[in-house]
């Protein structure tokens, strides 16, 4: 939905004489009506509304930015900066334009006006720069982490060597001497925790 | 060249340059949508494809790509004519966004009715909104995007080269820009390179009417304006994309350029699929 500027009636720093008289007259009429109902002296009924009306007109003159928006047909949108904001979802692609509410903001994208004047392509990294590239955070490994245990006895102390053929690995358990092959991307074989199968007694090696 | 597998340690970079000029308000091939709406819809679909491709486990996308979208023509945020990031919402003003961040910050989630009246509607994310206005400052778009791509390539020297896909329907209106013609700007952009080759510039020209759409021509012969100019600035189609095209049933001649001309909605979708399918490791 787009924000449309409506017709604006300003009561800003320079209220019109007509508006001022209208406010004062309304206050006086209200005062006279109150005098009739509560039997106050006529002088009080005139002076108090006049003072209230005067203060009101003064306050309106000092209060910047007050706007009254009477009902009326919307005007065309004013060209200018807008922000895209999500609204309630429509039911079809054709209604995509109804998703957004446009609101004024300003944040232009700047240009680095000299990138093309630099060398032909970005400078190649030196070997030293390659060596000091920090390792990814440990959390980034969680998706592919594998806790390797011996399928035969459940021990953690394992040796791994490249298979002669293919890109797999040959594993050997240091506790029970069990051998098994494994290829990256393949599931790890089912692990059975059987301490009795280990040659050495005690907990599995860390 | 163009053999590097994209991994999380060596991610790829895909940047879209999206024409948002006034002519994009035309209905696309007489259908119900304007070219601005259609291009935004296809772009949202291809972004969702990339997110799903990187989603190796439920609820989490891996950082295989940095994505940029730069709109040129009407600038909805800054106002007036120019170039700015087409991301909105919390990504507003961002130049290149990692894929997991993109996944988590759509502008809106939209219910799309199924063609089958019995099937339930599906909820799809929206990242780009259709807007149009002003002229076609394509050179400035390359200049703005190029600065970010240059920085990215410097930081990812061993990655697959950046892929820049320009979606337009009109003649460039700001050439020469800062003293350089469109061809010079394209050369500057494709002068950016990683160790796996120069950046790739793909162009696709949308047509509101007409026929004779063409994908990956090997010559500019017979192409009406601005076909020859777009042909000259388009990169030679690299082998991985030529293989993608063959899988998609598109015949590619030797010497083919990364250009689509007089595209309709399906052709744009196929072009973007072919241009963004790169081998991804783990």
Write structural notes for this entry.
The complex is a heterodimer of chains A (206) and B (282). Chain A has 206 residues and is α+β, with helices and mostly antiparallel strands. Chain A contains three helices and seven strands; from the N terminus they run E-H-H-E-E-E-H-E-E-E. Chain A has a three-stranded antiparallel beta sheet with strand order 5-6-7, with no helix packed on it. In chain A, strand 6 (169-173) and strand 7 (179-182) form a beta hairpin. Mean pLDDT of chain A is 61; it is low at 1-15, 64-110 and 121-133. Chain B is an alpha/beta fold and 282 residues long. Chain B has seven helices and twelve strands. In chain B, strands 1, 2, 3, 4, 7, 10, 11 and 12 form an eight-stranded mixed beta sheet that branches. Chain B has a two-stranded antiparallel sheet with strand order 5-6. Chain B has a two-stranded antiparallel ribbon with strand order 8-9. The model of chain B has no long low-confidence stretch (mean pLDDT 91). Chains A and B meet through strand 3 of A and helix 1, strand 3, strand 5, helix 3 and strand 8 of B.
Tertiary shape of chain A: rod-shaped
Mean pLDDT of chain B: 91
The radius of gyration computed from the alpha-carbon positions of chain A, rounded to a whole number of angstroms, is 41 Å
The largest sheet of chain A is: 3 strands, antiparallel
Widest sheet, order of strands of chain A:
5-6-7
Radius of gyration of chain B: 18 Å
Number of continuous helical runs of chain A: 3
Order of helices and strands of chain A: EHHEEEHEEE
The count of DSSP E runs of length 2 or more, i.e. the number of strands of chain A, is 7
Shape of chain B: globular
Look at the structure and give the mean pLDDT of chain A. Answer: 61
Low-confidence stretches of chain B: none
Helix content of chain A: 10-25%
Beta-sheet strand percentage of chain B?
Answer: 15-25%
Beta-strand portion of chain A reads 5-15%
Question: Distance between termini of chain B?
Answer: 21 Å
Low-confidence stretches of chain A: 1-15, 64-110, 121-133
